[in-house]
Write a structure and sequence with these properties.
257 residues, alpha/beta, seven-stranded mixed beta sheet, 7 helices, 9 strands
Length: 257
């Protein structure tokens, strides 16, 4: 038997076992068991991140999505879980130089919620994570519950799919750590455009590891900023009137090839 055939056989066995457990235990119990499985997949205690050691949280580790319980037709477009660098997130927030009290911070593909915890150090109106893996979302909620005296007191993580999520009409900072493929990214941008067309407001997008940045470049309603940070950063401002497809030249972000 080839390695490929053996791998497919193991995957089918795993799927059958998972469906049997789901029927026997119900979704809530299934997710709870999945959380423990995710924790076993995470890095060992001695390799725990400095952030987790300091705050008593669980954000470290790298987890492939096939090991998670995901109810989404866009499962195949997801990218493995891997936490962002807390210092990078802080720099990304601070470099925008905006009145954070006016803004909602949203991490799309928020995983265990590390960037939500970092964003809570700042006076955002509220902090929100969007995650489509049930176990990761549950761990994020538990991590949020461990926060002590955050500057932002309205912090949450929701189990949702970015391809169909209805974004708020408030001024927003959107964080992306290359969470999914180009088809879901296009759907998310369509959702954002729809919201802006109904209630125009200010929007910033910080796109870390911007593999599909050309899609944002060609969106017609986002202006690419020239900022000294290793990410693609975009802005939509109502005063620019760029909801109509325009032909402006987008600025190349510093630090990107």
């Amino acid at each position: 038997m080839s390695e490929e055939t053996s791998g497919r056989s193991q995957l089918r066995t795993l799927l059958r076992f998972g469906m049997q457990k789901l029927r026997q235990e119900g979704f809530a119990s299934f997710v709870k068991g999945g959380i423990e499985h995710v924790r076993r997949l995470s890095v060992p205690k001695q390799a725990q991140s400095a952030f987790d050691r300091r705050y008593g949280t669980d954000t470290a580790g790298t987890i492939p999505l096939w090991k998670l319980q995901i109810r989404s037709p866009h499962h195949a477009e997801g990218v493995r879980y891997q936490a962002s660098d807390p210092d990078f997130v802080r720099k990304a927030i601070e470099i925008l130089q905006i009145p954070l009290e006016r803004f909602v911070y949203i991490d799309v593909g928020s995983g265990k919620g590390l960037t939500l915890l970092v964003a809570s150090e700042y006076p955002f109106r509220r902090v929100l994570g969007i995650e489509f893996a049930a176990e990761l979302n549950a761990i994020a909620a538990e991590n949020i519950s461990r926060l002590i005296a955050p500057r932002c007191r309205d912090i949450s993580s929701v189990l949702a799919d970015a391809a169909s999520y209805r974004f708020p009409t408030e001024d927003t900072v959107l964080f992306l750590y290359n969470p999914f493929g180009k088809d879901v990214l296009k759907r998310m941008l369509d959702n954002l455009r729809s919201v802006l067309e109904q209630n125009d407001h200010e929007l910033y997008i910080v796109y870390s590891n911007p593999i599909f940045s050309q899609i944002l470049d060609q969106s017609g309603f986002l202006e690419r900023l020239d900022l000294p940070i290793g990410a693609a950063v975009y802005r939509h401002s109502p005063t620019h009137g760029v909801l109509q497809h325009d032909t402006r030249t987008h600025i190349h972000v510093v630090g990107e090839d």
